[in-house]
Amino acid sequence: MTERLYFHDAYQTRFFAQVLQSGVMDGCPAVVLDQTCFYPTSGGQMHDTGWLNGIAVHDVKHQDGEIWHLLSLPLQNGTVEGKIDWQRRFDFMQQHTAFHILAGCFNELFKISTLASHLGEEVSTIEIDVKDLTEEILQRVEARANQVVWENRAVNAFFVTPEQANDRVVRKKIVLNEPVRLVEIAGLDLDPCGGTHVAGTAQVGVIKILAAERIRGHWRLTFVAGRRGWREFCRESQIIKTLSDTLTTGSDQLKGQIEKMISENKEMRKALQRHSRAQADQAMAGLCEHAAQQGVVAHLFEYLGMEDLRRIAVSASKKQPGIYLLAAKGDQGYLVFANSKDPFDLRPVLKAVLPMINGRGGGEASLVQGGGPAQEMLKQALERAAQLVSQGKEPSAES
Ligand SMILES: [Zn+2]
Fold first, then answer.
1. Domains defined along the chain, listed by start
2. Alpha carbon of 199 to ligand 1 centroid (Å)
3. Strand 79-84 and strand 296-301: pairing?
4. CA of 54 to the centre of ligand 1 (A)
5. First-residue to last-residue Cα distance in the chain
6. How far, in Å, is the centroid of ligand 1 from the Cα of 294?
7. What pLDDT digit, counting tens, does each position of 91-125 carry?
8. Were 381 and a residue from 11, 56, 185, 353 both cysteine, which residue would form a disulfide, CB within 3.0 to 4.6 Å?
9. How far is the CA of 101 from the centre of ligand 1 (A)?
């Protein structure tokens, strides 16, 4: 059985060990050592990485009571020197301790218990047993958690008997027959845990809850701590700076400025729509005249909503029998084809040209409509539709 050095000192990064077993795991050379600093993925915390005699350890797994180090190359038996990737380890120590602090604060302030946790490589999550979670609860817990960080409370890990553990920990009943490792954040949290933690809460740096989502009747929170918290702050500051520079306004005026732009944009779109509608109505006479002469008319409007386009197509075809192939640029590219002359099925025509605008649509033989994002292809789609109609034959369509 491997001696787990990280149980006693989470800050130890180098060690010497003897290879006890060699094998292959997940297609990689793998070894079991008599002692190790490498933490295997378990208890919601991810594994360490590092090196054994300079050979990369890319995964560490706990299997059948043994800790297997998965290697990039085979390792010779005998004494090996191990070194863990300290930056990765310390990052997980920060996230893991932040988890205990959050769990402790939810319990202390609101008697909300913790159901699960996962410490990922980008963000971590904590699931809490509460039905109704308010913004106020989140803000108070986050503020309290950071207060605990700044108080630099001691974080201690120690082994006790299962009886002693059950006497002290009220949150979970322990059913093991072996010594239990407890992790204590002074005056806040006491929990059975086999993970790695910082020695004092100040090393967590900062704790920030990023998101909350309801799952299966309780809540899951996403959080970052330590270096990740600082990185998140930098990322968001950069976004705000870019927005401020683009809109040439101070960060505290951004919200008002963006709301004003959205409202102005809405008004402009309405005005544009009114203008386009009036123009389209004027264009209708020309469309009918063209249809009277040619039988088929194709026209692309610069800006028009689907409803207006459809209205024009239906009115024009009622007024003057013909085939009307209309398109418009709007929120996306729109196509409406109407036929009030010969029994000619427009559905295969639409089906043939919709892929040109990455569109979807359908309808009946005499009236079809569709829309798609590739507005720059509307003109070509319309030309192709006109070609298909003038050929007077339906394109072979799979359906
Ligand atoms: Zn822990």
1. 3-84 (2.40.30.130), 90-242 (3.30.980.10), 266-390 (3.10.310.40)
2. 12
3. unpaired
4. 29
5. 64
6. 80
7. 999 999 999 999 999 999 999 999 999 999 999 99
8. 353
9. 10
- So what's the pLDDT on residue 280? 81
Q: How far is the CA of 99 from the centre of ligand 1 (A)?
A: 8
Structure tokens at 282: 């004027």
Q: What pLDDT was estimated at residue 393?
A: 52
Ligand 1 centroid to residue 224 C-alpha, Å: 16
The total number of residues shown for the chain amounts to: 399
Q: Which uninterrupted H or E stretch holds 107?
A: helix 86-110
Instruction: Give percent of the chain with pLDDT exceeding 90.
Output: 77
Token couple for 10 = 């989470």
Residues sharing a CB contact under 8 Å with residue 376, sequence separation 6 or more, in sequence order? none
Cα(15)–Cα(8) distance, rounded to whole angstroms? 13
**Does the pLDDT value for residue 396 go beyond 50?**
no
Does 178 or 313 have the greater pLDDT score? 313
CA separation for the pair 320, 318 (Å, rounded): 6
The answer to whether 37 and 13 are in contact (CB under 8 A) is: yes
